[in-house]
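Notes from hallway chat w/ T.B., transcribed later so I don't forget. T.B. wanted the structure written out for a chain they're using in a teaching module, and asked if we could keep both sequence and C-alpha cells in one place. Agreed to drop them here.
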Amino acid sequence: MANLFRTLNTQFEKSIQRWKLEIERKIKEAEQPNFKEVVNISYGDFHAMGMKYITFVRQILAASAYPELLKSRQLPVDVEQRIVQFFKDWGKQSIGCYSEDFGISCVRRNVARFIEERDGGIACDRENIYITNGATNGLQLILRLFEYGKGPSQTGVLVPVPSYTRFRLMVLEAGGVNVPYYLNEGHSWALDMTEMKRALKCAREHCSPKILYLINPGNPTGQVMSRKTMEGIIKFAAEEKLFVVADEVYQDQVFGDNCSFLSFKKVLFEMGSEYRDNVELVSLNSVSKAYLGECGFRCGYLETINIDPEAITQLRILITSSSFPSISGQIVLDILMKPPQPGEPSYEIFNKEKTFIMNTLARNSKLAVQTINALPGLRCNPIQASMFCYTRLELPSKALEQCKVLHPCSTREV
C-alpha cells in the first residue's frame, strides 16, 4: 500500500507538471486564448511569485562569491565588514571550499545565540546545532535514526492532519506508519489532546508509535499553538515516551491578532526538571520562509535536546556520510540569525524591506480569506501565521451521499 501511495503521488505531481507545461506552450503559441498565464502557487515559493529579495542578503552573497566587488567601494561598509569577519571566523577564503560536517562553527555559534535571544536567555549549546540542506533534509535525517520493523512492532509516527504532505511520504519511505491525529477545524485548527490520545490508542493496535510530529505555526492550516496546548503536548509526550519533532520553520511569520510564537524548547524548559531533563526534542528552522523566502539556497538547522548519546552518534554518522550544507546557504542562514542592527549602515533599508514583506504577507492572507469566504461552497478560517489558506469545500448533499456509498467504512465526516 505504501509503494502504491508513493507511486500515485509521484504520477499525480508529474501529471500536474505536464498539464502546466502544455498550457504554457499553448499560451506561447497562441493556441490557448482563454488564459494569459499560468500562476504556480505550490510549495510556498515566495520569489517565484514575484517577492523581491532582501538587498543586504544579495549584497553579502554577491561579494562573498566575487570578492573583487569589495574593491569597488560601492557596497555599504557593514556589508564589507561582515564578509571580512565571516571568512576570518571561518578560517577559509572562498565559498568554493567544503564546509565542516555539521556546519561552519561560527554559523552554528550564531544560531545558538539566536535561539538564546528568542527564548529569553535559555542556554543553547552550539554542539547541539546541526546545519542541514533545508528543514526537509533535517526531517529525513531524524527519521533515519529509527528502526522500523514489521507488524505490531513497526514504528509509528503521529502526524497532524492536515499537514506537510512531503513528511508523510518521508515516513513511508523510511518504512514507518503514519498515525493521523486530526486538527480541530472548528477551533481554528487547534490541536485537541483528546484526539491525540485517541489516535495513539488506536495506533497501538497495529504498530508502535514512537515519534510525535508537530508543526507550529501550522502548515497548511496557519494556526499558532497556545502555551496551554504546548504544555499538554509535552506532558503527553513525557507520559507516552514519545520523541518530539517540532517543525518551526514559520516562526518568524506570525501576524494573527493576539498571536505570538513560542518555541517548544522554551515551553519545555519552563515546565521544570521533570520535563526539561527527560523529553526528547528536535526542533527545525529554515531560510526558505518568513521574510527571506530563500528556498533555492536549501539551508536550515536542527537543534537536539535530551537525545540519547547513541542516537547523537548515529545522527553525526548520517550527516557525515551525506552531502555537506552549501556555503552560500549557510551565509544566508547566518544573516537570518544575525541581521543588521539599528545604527548599522544597512539597517534602515533592511528593516524597510523586511517590514514591507511581512505587511504584504499579512495583508494578502486576510484578502485571500475574505475572497475565499465570499465564494459559494468554500470556507476558510482566518490565518494566524505561515502562508497557506486551507479551504473547506462544501459539497452538495448528493455528492456527500455518493461519497458515503464509495467509502462506506469511513469513520470521519466527509
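Follow-up for T.B.: The CA atoms of residues 57 and 335 lie 7 Å apart. Might be a good example for the class.
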